[in-house]
Amino acid sequence: MEFAGRDIVSIRDFSREEIDHVLEMTDVVEPMAKKGSHTLDGKIMATLFFEPSTRTRLSFESAMYRYGGKCLGFAEPKIASVEKGENLADTVRVVESYADVLVIRHPLEGAARLAAEFASVPVINAGTGAEEHPTQAMLDLYTMRKELGKIDGLNIVLAGDLRYGRTVHSLAYALSLYDINLHLVSPPLLKMKKEVLEEVKGRIKVHELEDLSKVIPEADVIYMTRIQKERFGSLEDYEKVRGSYILTADDLSPAKPGMIVMHPLPRVDEIANSVDDTPHSKYFKQVWYGLLVRMSLIGLVLGALS
Ligand code: NCD
């Protein structure tokens, strides 16, 4: 299995075996994350964030620092001029002289793929438009594996904005490589993107519904998502679905004792604070797992892990 020099653009570029390898390497880097390491001394990571982000960027940067590496980059929410592919290609060809790995977040679908085509160093997609967020999918899988001991056999619920949420697109693709039951809960307006649904349905059992309370008793994982306000064509449409799901501690009373609630964060109102104090809440633990998975990926693409 060859990871050195590889781009992480879409979760669809990875086999189950490769994803499992990333998860296994994540266990290996955990002590380095805790104690710090000099493995990547002298290496530089550039974070090119053309869309606002705090946690994902900090997660990648922290991962690099804990490895002994260094970071540079920018996080500009509004750079209208980069909407032309050519400009992005030029940015990438400049920055690759400064860094050994590029991490890119961009509002346009296809941007990470384009960057990867132009860059001679590995490119990691940290979220492109409503398309994909592959490293989030890997950390979501890692969370399930750590907290539940396995992925196969689980009843997994993805709830909320399945149309515009990129994390659920990558996660649904990834989960379809495992033997699971997938429950997709959303209002009709925010149903799972067709192309994702079709591919996933070809591989695993998928059950689409609107009422979250119906699947709480059988769920092993409830993965809540934020309604992606910024991706709606009109505010009017957003108002129609705002607050569609608000999960409270009371709603969880019929849940299995070991059921876990996950969320990619940031949350708005879809998980009430009352859930935070229940044993089901794992969304803050997911943040730690995310750091570890990103260390694993950086180590693999830079050839420090194999
Ligand atoms: C997600 C994203 O950016 O897609 N957040 C993240 O990566 N931390 C989810 C979201 O913004 O709702």
What does this structure look like?
This protein has 306 residues and is of the alpha/beta class. It folds into 2 domains: 11-131 and 288-301, Rossmann fold, CATH 3.40.50; 134-283, Aspartate/ornithine carbamoyltransferase (Rossmann fold). It is 36% helix and 15% strand. It has 9 helices and 9 strands. The radius of gyration is 19 Å and the shape is globular. The structure holds N-carbamoyl-L-aspartate (NCD).
- Given helix and strand content, the structural type is alpha/beta
Number of helices: 9
Please tell me the CATH architecture of the largest domain by its name: 3-Layer(aba) Sandwich
How far is the N terminus from the C terminus?
8 Å
CATH topology category name of the largest domain:
Rossmann fold
Outline the fold blueprint.
Blueprint (H helix, E strand, L loop, with lengths): L15 H20 L8 E6 L5 H12 L3 E6 L9 H11 L5 E6 L4 H8 L4 E6 L5 H15 L6 E5 L6 H10 L5 E5 L8 H8 L3 E5 L11 E4 L10 H7 L18 E3 L20 H19 L5
Parallel strand pairs: 1-2, 1-3, 3-4, 5-6, 5-8, 6-7, 8-9
Helix pairs in contact: 1-5, 1-9, 2-9, 3-4, 5-6, 5-9, 6-7
Bound molecules: N-carbamoyl-L-aspartate (NCD).
The site of N-carbamoyl-L-aspartate has 10 residues, from helix 2 and helix 6.
Features:
306 residues, alpha/beta, Rossmann fold, 2 domains, five-stranded parallel β-sheet, four-stranded parallel β-sheet, 9 helices, binds N-carbamoyl-L-aspartate
